[in-house]
Design a protein that fits this description.
It is globular and about 45 Å long. It starts with a strand and ends with a helix. It has six helices and seven strands. Helices cover 35% and strands 35% of the residues. Helix 1 crosses helix 3. The chain has a seven-stranded mixed β-sheet with strand order 1-2-3-4-5-7-6, with helices on both faces. The longest helix is centred in the middle third of the chain and has 16 residues. The protein is α+β, with helices and mostly antiparallel strands.
């Protein structure tokens, strides 16, 4: 497993991964219906590279061998408060192998060790048990539930927020 910045040359792989996992991803991710072409994947990658440049966010691919397995992001980086929000998803055939837990672990190490952030947040739909297992496995603290926080196509879902501080990460026993 490795994590690298997504580049425009990865657009076909990204589109194919979304397309082949459309039904599963759509259950929890609001962007899936808009992903209808390689052009959209290219625009997503290009926009994130140009707008964020690692300053406001970061979008990376997760590779299992030579295959793109999923995406992991700093959705936002709040430099004034030294905090970031992590988002992630994996294709179905890559789930249940520890790939996302290891990917999040690596991104959190980067956040605290290299970027010198103080706080990492992960937010998941309350009913998305698989997603919630990631921060729970990594020792994050559940901090609260936001009612009807996210609109998913035709309904709102409640989200649960998890947080980890740099001092907790350094001293964790997980």
């Amino acid at each position: 497993m490795r994590i690298n910045l997504l580049e425009p040359r990865h657009a076909l792989d990204l589109f194919e991964l979304v397309n082949s996992n459309r039904a599963q991803l759509r259950e929890w991710l609001p962007f899936v219906d808009g992903y209808k072409s390689i052009k959209v994947a290219t625009q997503f990658i290009t926009r994130n590279r140009e707008e964020n440049s690692g300053e406001k966010g970061l979008v990376m691919g997760i590779w299992a061998g030579k295959l793109l397995a999923g995406v992991i992001t700093f959705d936002t980086i709040d430099w004034s408060n030294r905090a970031a929000l992590i988002g992630f998803w994996l294709g179905k055939s890559f789930q249940g192998k520890g790939i996302m837990t290891r990917s999040c672990n690596a991104l959190i190490d980067l956040a605290f060790d290299e970027l010198r952030l103080n706080r990492i947040e992960i937010s998941c739909a309350v009913e998305n048990r698989r997603c919630r297992l990631i921060p729970e496995r990594l020792g994050f603290k559940q901090e609260g539930v936001s009612r009807q926080r996210e609109w998913l196509y035709d309904h709102f879902v409640d989200t649960v927020s998890y947080g980890m501080l740099a001092s907790e990460w350094k001293n964790r026993t997980v």
